[in-house]
Amino acid sequence: MNTDDFGMYRDVNEAVVRSIEDGIAASCSLMTPCPAAGHAMGLLRERPEIPFGIHLTLVCELPGRPWGPLADRDRVASLLDETGGLFTYDRIPELLDRARIDQVEIEFRAQINAVLDAGLAPTHLDWHCLADGGRADVFELTMALAGEHGLAVRAWQDRSRRLLRERGLPVVDHGFLDSFALDLDGKAAAYARLLRELPPGLSEWAVHPGLGAEESRSVDPHGWRVRRSDYAFLTSPQARELLRQEGITVIGYEVVRRAWSAA
């Protein structure tokens, strides 16, 4: 169970840490271009036991708290819209149509280096808002970067999982769950049902906790309810009891990274 969007804003950062330390989540993914990335990295330095990955970010969906690339804008122009910012969620097809892979590599390396230069040790790479990178060449680039740094890659789609299995790398056995795809009404009950029905093998949930405080409501008008409902369930006594009753073991990405290294 991996918590996404660490670094997006402080409300999310606090919820992510609490969901891991006091709840049932096991790892997180850090967005280095975001305004609260420095705060998130400070929390990680204080908690070296928390496994975290790098949520490689080419999309900005929060107009109230925008972020841009870490690389110099003139070096990654194909990744930027007409205002010089990252493309918004609704323009992802346009981004994928025009993004030059050499410039994607420049930006991805800048985001990875921001973490390494902070003295932190990530466990894996994944992508923000782009399923398995959004394009085959972006996926292969990410695989190469992961291999360079001894990291795992978080892959969900059938094609990607098949490719990784052919390379002898362990991946999830079942389709992933994105918490933004669940209805808000009855969400806790839906989570409980999914835990009770969880099939044997390795599954992954991508959850997005947030405290739902004033900051969240002002900068994230479309997402804060999803984040607050995720946080409420992840830190609830009910969630821990369900894991106990069903004999479910939750692992973080450090376990996956070690399995990849062994493979």
Q: Please list the strands of the largest sheet in the order they lie side by side.
A: 5-4-3-2-1-7-6
If helices are DSSP runs of H or I spanning 4 or more residues, what is the number of helices?
11
Give helix and strand order, one letter per element, not per position.
Answer: EHEHEHHEHEHEHEHHHH
Mean pLDDT: 96
The proportion of residues in beta strands is 5-15%
Main sheet overview: 7 strands, parallel
Distance between the termini: 22 Å
Q: Helical amount among residues, as a percent range?
A: 40-55%
- Structural class, by secondary structure, is alpha/beta
How many beta-strand elements?
A: 7
Which term fits the overall shape?
A: globular
**Which runs of at least 5 residues are low in confidence (pLDDT < 50)?**
none
Q: Kindly provide the radius of gyration, computed on alpha-carbon positions and rounded to a whole number of angstroms.
A: 18 Å
Structural features, described:
This protein is α/β, with parallel strands linked by helices. Helix content is 44%, strand content 10%. The chain has a seven-stranded parallel beta sheet. Helix 5 links the parallel strand 4 and strand 5. Helix 4 runs parallel beside helix 5. The chain is globular, with a radius of gyration of 18 Å.
